[in-house]
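So, is this right?
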Amino acid sequence: MSQVSFEKLLEIMEAKDKRLVDEVGGLQVIAQNLGSDLENGLQMISDHDLDQRKQKYGENKMERKAPPSIFELFMEAMKDTTIIVLLIAAVISITIGAVICSIQLGKTCPRKPLWDIGY
C-alpha cells in the first residue's frame, strides 16, 4: 500500500479533481490510508482514536460559501441583454403613457408623471 501524505489529501479535497485521486492509486488506496473502508466507513473506534483523527485530519465538514446578496443577484441579472431591453421598454412605455395622458386630460389625468406630483 502506498502512503498518501496529508498534504496530498488536502490537495485532492480542494481541487476536487478525479485525476488526482487516480494519481495516488484510487479511492481504495485513500480509504486504506485513512483507516477506513469504502463499504462500511470507519469501524467502531474509541473516543480517544476519534479525537486523534480529528486532530490529525480536522472536522469532517465543508465550508459553506455565503449565498449571494440580493444586490449581487440584481447586478448579475442586469448583465442580461433581455432584461436591459425590457427595462428600457418599460421606462419608455410608462413615460409615453404619462405624457399622453397629461396632454389629453390635463390635471385630471390619473397617471401623473413623477415630475408633476406636486404637494
In short: The first helix runs from residue 6 to 15. The CA atoms of residues 2 and 25 lie 8 Å apart. The chain has two domains: 6-57, 70-116. DSSP finds six helices and no strands in the chain.
